[in-house]
Amino acid sequence: MARVRLQGISKIFDTVQAVDNVNIEVEEGEFFSLLGPSGCGKTTTLRMLAGFETPSAGKIFFNEKDMTNTKPQNRNVGMVFQNYALFAHLSVSENVAFGLKARKVEKSDIAPRVSNALREVDLAGYENRAVSALSGGQQQRVALARALVIEPQILLLDEPLSNLDAKLRVETRERIRALQKKLGITTFYVTHDQEEALTQSDRMAVFFTGKCVQIGTPREVFNQPNSRQVMAFLGRANFLQARALEHGVVQLTENVKVRVRRNGLEPGTEVTIAFRPHDVELFAQEPHFQGKICKLTYTGAYEEVVLQVGEMQIEAISPIQNTSQKLKIGEAIPIRLPLEKLIVF
Fold it and tell me: Residue 55, SS3?
């Protein structure tokens, strides 16, 4: 295991700033996700950790040892690539053993270490199979076994589930997280999938345009986003324009004023009030608005509701068992905003 520190890391390709002054500290045994849209710098950051790219500025430390210019083979890092990077002409065991042979491990030690790594990923008995004959999920596990067999101090995973179907993604991410906890390896996990990051991480960093814009636990980042951009990326959200009054009160419409959990707003300032659709209360006893239902979308477990309130549209999510007999297009219903969860930008 290793404690990792990225200190002012930047990377420039020609004139493109791929990573811009990133500072991250990750503790031993932590599962840390890098989340963001395509092209935001998260994979480049991972490649600098692996040693495949050299930072244009800044330093990388493993256990306070400067590893910035250390070659990849001397970092004791295991990596699972997005496309797995398996050798089609080699068997499962030969693929897993590749890193050990490259490190000139004693031949007598290779077979037992390969067998143990395959057991860890539930592929015992697959040693002599051709990787081309395996399913996508099995190939992903071979790639994971190959990364783990070298007994790395750090595990790097670059969008490892992107080639799997939805059901297999859930099963595989649970397998990865359980194995990581068991082995206690410091892990960096790159993904553009918000659910993967939220369900697996001890902590996570959100990236946009090369910058790390927020770091925290999944609950902290989801419930306390530091920008409209972060909130929108982490899931569906409502954004309503309002005007700040005095003493933490904002005015949404001529008749609706609400108190928010933010002091110091300059009276008269235009602000944005944000909240999640699942926090909107439908058929409220003490409503803020009457909302006219203009769209209903059935998803199985819940219904997505779009309500028109004057010139505003508000999205809500309601469990089927609560409202399936009550919601009708064109109906006006009382709704209440989640005062304790309102966020002001």
Answer: coil
